[in-house]
Amino acid sequence: MLILRCPYCGVETDETDLQGGGQAHLKREGPGSSDDDFEDYLFMRENPKGVHFERWRHVYGCGKWFLAARCTNTLEVFGTYPAQTLEPPQEIKDKITAKRPGWSWGTFQ
Amino acid sequence: MDLCKVQIEWVDAACLPQAFGTPMKRYSAFAIAKEAMRQHTGWDRAWAKREPKKKYDVIIVGAGGHGLATAYFLGKNFGITNVAILEKGWLGGGNTGRNTTIIRSNYLQDPSAAIYEKSRSLYETMSQDLNYNVMFSPRGVIMLAQTQHEVRGYKRTAHANALQGVTTEWIEPARVKELCPIMNIDGPRYPVLGGLWQARGGTARHDAVAWGYARACSDMGMDVIQQCEVKAVRQEGGKVVGVDTSKGPIDCDKLGMVVAGHSGVMAQMAGFRLPVESVALQALVSEPIKPAMDIVVMANTVHGYLSQSDKGEMVIGGGTDGFNNYTQRGSFHHIEETVRALVETFPMLARLKMLRQWGGIVDVTGDRSPILSKTPVEGIFVNCGWGTGGFKATPGSGWAMAELMAKGQSPLTDEFSMFRFREGKFIDESVAAGVAH
Question: How many CB atoms lie within 10 A of CB B305?
């Protein structure tokens, strides 16, 4: 059972209270974007065996969206943070670096 | 059926007398009688254990059902036998040995029906073709309709199947009860409103499918190499030239990636991305009981499917996790959800103890249809995205993938290109198939 901490309520909660929302930090494409950009935005997803960033919703709690940094191989959680961020907070990146030196994900490392 | 069983079979075979480089003896009633006379001392290994050569015409990564079937049809249909099948774990130890062995071809979209029906028809003669008993049992598959939405959906599928030449029929609740007497069709939450019946669907022994293909490939001179993990894909001028593995570098002209849940990881090695995400899908079996049902029942509304194995276990397929992972375990609460829902439709299950639970990593595409395709790298072909329903497609997938790799094109794979998404040409089975697959 995956347990995540909602960064808004501060509650440690089971995955049954939450709903996964797929990959985080997607860049929304609009008019004028190329076909490649649209394909990437709509269909291509990071699918790493290791460090991953995801959207989650505290659906049976405060109802708000947040983001989580997690390892898809061990289910270890590195941290959660509010959804209104363009990239993971430095503190979470440092935590990941301490445990997974040399990690990278999309444009982050 | 589960991990343990596969390992035991593997150890048994390793103890058998070795006979490398000689053609396989045929299995037959006569051979059994002959061996019985000499204390069964004359059986060969089912397939030869080999070390990699320097170079092959074709390397297939992944010795699961689909990878082995691809290699088999490369040899059988196209005469390409300088082939290695590389496996990081052991033969058929991934999703091939973890599924619930259901075979059916009652899909909505034409390209799906074509490849799944090809596959189902190949299962009918597989034991004879491979000289290996895969225990194909065309016992019939019902997909239950438990909501009005499903009633309309399955009636539509039945009509589509009629046009595709796939034999299915819509049946009423009384007929469902007749086919499967242990079912409660008047449940308060999920009454049975009818079903889509494919009489020629069924099950097969999944380990035997992998072993049968491995034996046939080995017999054609191909090398099945276990515990050989691909670490890197080497390219020159946009073309594949080989792979680096845990057993050293191996060169090749063509590379087939048939690695299911790890397709994203392999694509990253080759420098491109795939529109797939990997999640754990789980299944469980009960203690063995006397024969109680002789068909396969799928209940998509409640995300459960059920059949009884030849050993007597009730085999139950459950749902996928709601987040990406590579754990081969699955979240525990899915078991509760699956069993809770099935107990209403099959009240007798309430008294059964569950014996084992396991998970496999499935690679899921946006439209829930597979990818059999060329890739941005010349010489690399990918077969992935079978998601939660790949076992039924094993021979058809191998047939089509072999044609694609040998000729660069196949009528069965045309629609399943990895580039279909950008063109908006989805093969949308996500609505038609739901979760259970």
Answer: 25
Q: Do A66 and A8 touch, CB atoms closer than 8 A? A: yes
* Widest pairwise Cα distance in chain B: 64
How many CA atoms, within 13 angstroms, populate the side-chain half-sphere of residue B46? 22
Is this complex scored with an ipTM above 0.90? yes
Q: Which amino acid is at A51?
A: V
A-interface mutation test, from B274, B326, B336, most A Cβ less than 10 A away: B326
Nearest-10 Cα torsion for A48, A49, A54, A56: 140
Gap between the Cα atoms of B185 and B176, Å rounded: 8
Question: DSSP string of B339-385?
Answer: HHHHHHH-GGGGGPPEEEEEEEEEEEETTS--EEEE-SSBTEEEEE-
Q: Output the pLDDT for position B332.
A: 87
Residue B6 confidence class, pLDDT cut points 50, 70, 90: very low
Are B169 and B197 contacting, i.e. CB atoms less than 8 angstroms apart?
yes
Chain B 296-325, residues with CB within 8 Å of chain A CB atoms = 322-325
Query: What tens digit of pLDDT does each residue of B256-295 get?
Result: 999 999 999 999 999 999 999 999 999 999 999 999 999 9
Q: Domain containing A49: what range?
A: 3-99
**Residue A108 falls inside a structural domain:** no
Q: Which amino acid is at A6?
A: C
Name which of A94, A103, A4 is nearest A58 in CA terms.
A4
**A34: domain CATH number?**
3.30.2270.10
Domains of chain B: 132-203+277-365 (3.30.9.10)
Taking an 8 Å cut-off on Cβ atoms, the answer to whether A44 and B275 are in contact is yes
Contact residues on chain A for B326, CB-CB shorter than 8 A: 49, 72-73
Give the pLDDT score at B23.
59
Q: Which residues from A are below 8 Å from B269, CB to CB?
A: none
- Test the B interface: residue of A36, A40, A42, A43 with most B CBs within 10 Å: A43
